[in-house]
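3.2 Worked example (two chains)
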Amino acid sequence: MIHFDKVSKIYSDKTVALDNITFKIDPGEFISIVGHSGAGKTTLTKMLMAEEKPTKGKVFLESVNIHALPRKHINEYRRRIGVVFQDFRLLSGKTVFENIAYAMEVAGREDKDVQSDVPYVLKLVDLEKKMWNYPHELSGGEKQRVAIARAIVNQPDIIIADEPTGNLDPINTYDIVQILKKINDLGTIIILTTHNKGVVDSIKRRVITLDRGKIVRDDPQGNYVL
């Protein structure tokens, strides 16, 4: 379970990014975080990644205050989270297989795990036939599916999908949403940040709306209202 407990973030220029927010995310939830640019979505996800610290309040994963973790344990904690970005962030000089294998190697996984797990996650995102292609040989939707495979290959508890469909057409957007829902059905928490009302409406899961750092709506039915 994730718990933001009375969390505020005020930057050095006095910008209030988050203003006394409290909410919980239960195991297995699919939650969308929505709001206009500057609403606080990025700060919220950076806090969960332990890349930003609260000015006030605490953020817990299960019973652990993540911002009280010793520095030597931060990387271990971050391995529990997979991240999917809008701009894919694939390594251009590596094949699809090698891009995903690299994430496993960084995490210290064994070669036998690489050989079994990379094909498995590529099958999950329907890209096993593109295993030896390079990123420049893929469409935008295919690149994002590789990015998702890379994010899930180390079996994280949480996936943060940061505007994952922002650069995609409607057909590829639909495909990416379906893959995220499939991953969620396997028990992984999905935290999706998006501006796309159509995406949120199609998921029909819980939606938290941020405005100027405050939670102005927490809708369990998945309605996107700004």
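3.2.1 Second chain
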Amino acid sequence: MSTPLPPAQPAIDLAEPLLAQVGAMGTGYDTWIHKSIGPTTASRLMAPKAAAGDALATRWPASLRIFQSPLLERLSHISWKLIPAVWLPIVLGLLLGSTLGLGLAWGRALAWMLVGMLGWTLLEYVLHRFAFHWRPRSALGRKLHFLAHGIHHLDPWDATRLVFPPLAGVVVAALIYLPLGLLLPATIATALMAGILLGYIVYDMSHYHAHHARPKGRWAKAIKIAHQAHHHKWPNRLYGVSSPLWDLVFRTGRP
């Protein structure tokens, strides 16, 4: 008895909005997103649209289009500068709130911040490994995965889709802080959250640096080499971006 062939995959037109197309993909979706396009492909694909007067293709000539809606497409482009601009004042506010506002000693506050930063590295690893690299089986799952991480693996050269949108980040931060506030004293929960958010800033800046900066120093070079290997050699390994700690603990580093 012959083995049935897998269903044929629909052709994907990279010049057209992608979200509406990826839902129809089947088992080939995971393989497809990990065959990243070259750094000039998006520019080549968008050039005719820009020449025809497409405002979005003109504004972001090196980006594949995700959404049919111009508004949603605009919202999908995030400058890395927004991350420190939005989150550093919040980190400072939480630190001052835990000390000057709630009376936690500075030494204890800084110690809990360090715990929070360590906690973030574990959260970063877990999210990257189990949420960003899960294999969706449904059309909706593929669309959600593509928005969360698939587009980044398909086009890792896009500098405007590397960092997490701050509005969505506020929702995630609130979901993290809620159980902390219920389980811990407000002083500790606030200082801990400051460390978690500082760890997140380090992560997003490390991620941007790994793709779009020339590293200086051994640590920066090691981070860049490991993350590039994750993209182009071992997508199911090297999940840590800002730190290799948990890849070492869970043995998901270099094979």
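3.3 Remarks
Residues 82-249 form one domain.
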